[in-house]
């Protein structure tokens, strides 16, 4: 365990159930400074969004969680944290390849394939976020993925060479805290605008599917709550969706 400064820890583990679980537990037991991180070589129960699991081969990828205490973020406006995390991952991967986009709400895509995933778990205290554990998995050096995973890709598969995971993590930390300082200065609009610019399928009409069937629409907005606003091509009606209420038709 490296002790960076008082209470701020970078904890490196060979194996854990999930870096998010580990960091959440530790943050409950002791006071950790903002920026504390847990990094693992392998997770036995890697967690993804909506109760899915996150599979990553041993020692090849980046699996980490970062703790922050965002000030005055209402629970119903917590999507700003997703925007910051997604942009930080995108800006990091931009150093290595083109064609990185954020697929709403916070998947990171290279072209039509997923290269990174983000799972944010917030503790809410009286309508405000008390702390936020930002879990990130980036496929770095994995060469083969199990066939049951739908569309994964790694940096190795894109670039064709092994990358230093610590170097990528350093870049991520810098990118994250650049955006986070902007957020602390109140520059939320800049972050929202950047997020919109970097969205997957942000321009033009595409097929989507909700509980009533398929329809063609374009992205109008992503609200502070995280809802996606789509405008249908035929009736020009605006429809607002929470995560998992709509899917992108491939
Ligand atoms: C998703 O796309 O479904 C989100 C995946 C998030 C995976 C990361 S890996 C590090 C951290 N620990 C976890 O258990 N999950 C996140």
UniProtKB/TrEMBL annotation:
Protein keywords: Ligase
Source species, domain of life: Bacteria
GO molecular function: biotin--[biotin carboxyl-carrier protein] ligase activity
GO cellular component: cytoplasm
Pfam family, one: BPL_LplA_LipB
Ranges for domain BPL/LPL catalytic: 5-184
Record-linked InterPro entries: aa-tRNA-synth_II/BPL/LPL (IPR045864), Biotin_CoA_COase_ligase (IPR004408), BPL_LPL_catalytic (IPR004143)
CDD domains: BPL
Alphabetical list of NCBIfam families matching this protein: birA_ligase (TIGR00121)
Protein name listed in UniProt: Putative biotin-(Acetyl-CoA carboxylase) synthetase
Lineage: Bacteria, Pseudomonadati, Bacteroidota, Bacteroidia, Bacteroidales
């Amino acid at each position: 365990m490296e002790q960076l400064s008082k209470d701020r820890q970078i904890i490196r583990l060979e194996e854990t159930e999930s870096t998010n679980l580990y960091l959440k537990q530790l943050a409950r037991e002791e006071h950790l400074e903002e920026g504390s991180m847990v990094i693992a070589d392998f997770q036995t129960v890697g967690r993804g969004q909506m109760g899915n699991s996150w599979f990553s081969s041993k020692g090849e990828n980046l699996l980490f969680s970062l703790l922050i205490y965002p000030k005055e973020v209402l629970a119903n406006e917590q999507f700003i944290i997703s925007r910051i995390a997604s942009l930080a991952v995108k800006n990091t991967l931009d150093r290595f390849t083109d064609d990185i986009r954020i697929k709403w709400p916070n998947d990171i895509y290279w072209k039509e394939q997923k290269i990174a995933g983000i799972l944010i778990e917030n503790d809410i205290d009286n309508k405000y976020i008390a702390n936020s554990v930002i879990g990130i998995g980036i496929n770095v050096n994995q060469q083969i993925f199990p066939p049951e995973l739908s569309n994964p890709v790694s940096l190795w598969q894109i670039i064709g060479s092994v990358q230093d995971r610590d170097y990528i993590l350093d870049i991520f930390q810098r990118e994250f805290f650049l955006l986070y300082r902007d957020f602390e200065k109140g520059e939320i609009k800049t972050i929202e605008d950047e997020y919109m610019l970097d969205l997957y399928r942000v321009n033009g009409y595409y097929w989507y599917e909700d509980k009533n069937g398929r329809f063609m629409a374009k992205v109008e907005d992503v609200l502070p709550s995280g809802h996606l606003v789509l405008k249908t091509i035929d009736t020009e009606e605006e429809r607002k969706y929470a995560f998992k209420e709509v899917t992108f038709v491939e």
